Amino acid sequence: MKSDVVIIGGGMSGLATGALLSKQDKRVTLLEKGNTPGGRAYCYEEKGYTLNYGAHAMYIPESGPLAELMGRLGRTAPKNGYPAATRSYWVHGGRFASLGAKAHQVITTGLFSVGGRMAVAKVMLALRGEKVDR
Length: 134
Prior knowledge:
Blueprint: E1 5-8, H1 12-23, E2 28-31, E3 43-46, E4 49-52, H2 65-72, E5 89-92, E6 95-98, H3 103-106, H4 114-128
Parallel strand pairs: 1-2
Antiparallel strand pairs: 3-4, 5-6
């Protein structure tokens, strides 16, 4: 098969680029070394829980990069919304636990050492007063 473009990597950027180019009638070949496309945008099961491998802009599909891409492709973005931080679990160094949504909840997580918990809590407290530009 002849291609106009060869894309190396089937993560979100590679898939988006391939979709946009093919919409412009380009013949695209996408090469991915992994078992499935999507890069870090996938979930897996562990200990009976569904875990998200990579945090990314997929949680704000109505206004983020996914919305823009889907609009350019003539499609509607899925309505996912933000994950509930109080119901989210993380895996770190073989440990599986809730991180929490507030600084005081981080102090009790089983994910980090005591020093690690204090460092994360300090960052969360520092970020609490910051304004977010949108």
